[in-house]
Amino acid sequence: MNLTIIGSGYVGLVTGACLADIGHDVFCLDVDQKKIDVLNSGGIPIHEPGLREVIARNLAANRLKFSTDVRAAVAHGDVQFIAVGTPPDEDGSADLQYVLAAARNIGRYMTGFKVIVDKSTVPVGTALRVRETVAAELAARGEEHMFSVVSNPEFLKEGAAVDDFTRPDRIVLGCDEDVPGEKAREVMRRLYAPFNRNHERTLWMDVRSAEFTKYAANAMLATRISFMNELANFADRIGADIESVRRGIGSDPRIGYDFLYAGCGYGGSCFPKDVEALIRTAAENSHELKILKAVSSVNDAQKQVLAQKIIARLGDDLSDRTFAVWGLAFKPNTDDMREAPSRTLIAALLARGARVVAYDPVAIRDAKRAIELDLQDEPEWLARLTFANEQMEAVKNADALVILTEWKAFKSPDFDSLKKGLKVPLIFDGRNLYEPDAMREIGVEYHAIGRGG
Ligand code: NAD
Ligand code: UGA
To answer: What positions does the entry give for substrate binding (predicted)?
Structure first.
């Protein structure tokens, strides 16, 4: 099939590359000329394991093309995936300007039947707005072409995106029941058939339910994390160990082990914004989602917990202290800094006069950019932030090590070198990487989340 992907970011690139990999002819569009130039020169603008190889072999096979040419993009694909960003608006609702711009372009240039697929995470009712936008453009041109808007939310995780896309737990497809909808359903069935090889993973539903399913999934996952974070803080208070509790409850198959890790708060481009957007959608419909409001405020508070532990131990004035920070991206195996807890923690340390030496295996460039933007009005703070090229270099002469992302390389460091590097053996761990007993045995003072203070 000829496919067009509008928006070549984390989701668009993975979708385009993986669909090319099963033989489709894919045109990836973006408005960002720099991104397209990088892609066309064999580079890749994001860190996503395995993606570079998939892109390279499909570029070589001429099944993948990157361009900013909107007209050519719309002409190319029988299926037009909209995979642009839906960032939070000022009031927390999803900003649909990029989705609707994509829809306008499709309406402006389409010349025959198109299946338009909403892959971006969009509030219930957006497919209808996309349909109206395309129809308005067609009417303005005085043309009539059949099209259908399908909701096909994406559930991939960054850092495991290629695997998640190619081996999905489920494929959610919301289609209309009218004639164009039936035609679109058939196209989508054929498109996703290779992903259903061993058993059927497609869940067919109405468009609004598909749109809602995406938010419900992210909201449920965020709820589990905030719930565990709240229990972890309480465990600290009462002298219990959240890791034992996690294993104790996760062993019940009705609960399961996944997404029960307490930490320094969830970040990323999705949970924070999607929880807020769902709360806003509810408010617009005169409905209050009380649990989700709590999930969001627990997470905001959780991003401060490690700073509070540091202050409780070292005092509020940190002006003669240096902190090594390991892990800047919002999670391992990505360079994505959106809503990363490191941004909050580093700002809190700098605000109290500390010096920070930060390290991340892949996100240093993006971290620099993000933190410089956050603190553009605080040049004096920024002057106290430096970046190390190597993890052990960061800890040299630091008063403490702070861990914010569970990169593999941080899980079993050479503790002798670590202790030699640090002024005193003191670790604040926002990801519970080590065993408190083992740390005690080797003489490291260890503060984690929900593990006894
Ligand atoms: P992103 O910011 O990485 O990429 C979006 C891209 O769209 C950018 O490159 C931007 O330049 C481009 N763009 C904007 N307007 C355009 C237009 N009119 N025409 C062509 N290109 C345009 O965003 P992302 O992380 O890939 O997320 C995209 C959507 O997918 C969001 O709704 C997000 O919530 C959802 N989602 C993201 C993930 C994830 O892990 N990142 C997972 C599932 C769903
Ligand atoms: C998340 C979902 O997992 C995907 O299914 C979804 O498609 C995506 O959002 C999206 O809609 O964009 P992602 O944000 O890439 O994926 O990463 P996650 O692995 O879910 O982690 C999100 C945040 O939660 C990270 O900051 C992580 O550290 C934190 N987390 C995760 C915890 O604190 N505890 C856990 O047990 C799990």
So the answer is: 155-158, 214, 259-263, 267, 331
Ligand 2 atom closest to 334 (CA) = 15
B/e letters for 140-159, b = 16+ CB within 10 Å, e = fewer, are eeeeeeebbbbbbbbbbebb
121 is in an annotated binding site: yes
* CATH superfamily of this structure's domain 2-203: NAD(P)-binding Rossmann-like Domain (3.40.50.720)
Residues 336-367 have pLDDT tens digits of 999 999 999 999 999 999 999 999 999 999 99
Q: Which CATH number fits domain 220-447: 3.40.50.300, 1.10.10.10, 3.40.50.720, 3.30.499.10?
A: 3.40.50.720
- DSSP 8-state symbol, 80: E
Please tell me the distance from the alpha carbon of residue 130 to that of residue 113, in angstroms, as a whole number.
Answer: 15
Rounded mean pLDDT, 413-432 = 97
| DSSP class of 331 | S
Long-range contacts of 273-276 (CB under 8 A, 24+ apart): 273/86, 273/87, 273/88, 273/92, 273/94, 273/339, 274/121, 274/214, 274/215, 274/218, 274/219, 274/222, 275/218, 275/219, 275/222, 275/299, 276/88, 276/92, 276/93
CA 362 to centroid of ligand 1, rounded, Å = 21
Joined tokens for residue 170: 């489920």
Output the residue whose Cα is nearest ligand 2's atom 31.
Answer: 259
Read off the DSSP letter of residue 375.
T
Handedness of CA 391, 342, 386, 443 (dihedral sign): negative
Look up 270 and say whether it is catalytic: yes
Cα–Cα distances (Å) from 67 to 79, 285, 307, in that order, read 17, 39, 44
| Partner residues linked to 65 by β-bridges | 27
- For the segment 9-56, what is each residue's pLDDT rounded down to a tens digit? 999 999 999 999 999 999 999 999 999 999 999 899 999 999 999 999
| Dihedral Cα 274, 275, 281, 286, nearest 10 deg | 180
State the burial class of residue 54 (Cβ atoms within 10 Å of its Cβ: 0-12, 13-18, 19+): buried
Span from the CA of 192 to the centroid of ligand 2 (angstroms): 24
> What residues flank ligand 2, with Cβ below 6 Å?
121, 154-158, 218, 221, 225, 259-261, 263, 266-268, 270-271, 330-331
| Cβ-Cβ contacts under 8 Å for 438 (sequence gap 6 or more) | none
Both tokens of residue 18? 């993986």
The mean predicted confidence, pLDDT, of the chain is: 97
The ranges of the chain annotated as CATH 3.40.50.720 are 2-203, 220-447
- Specify the pTM: 0.96
Q: Which of 6, 66, 67, 84 to mutate to test the pocket of ligand 1 (most atoms within 8 A of CB)?
A: 84
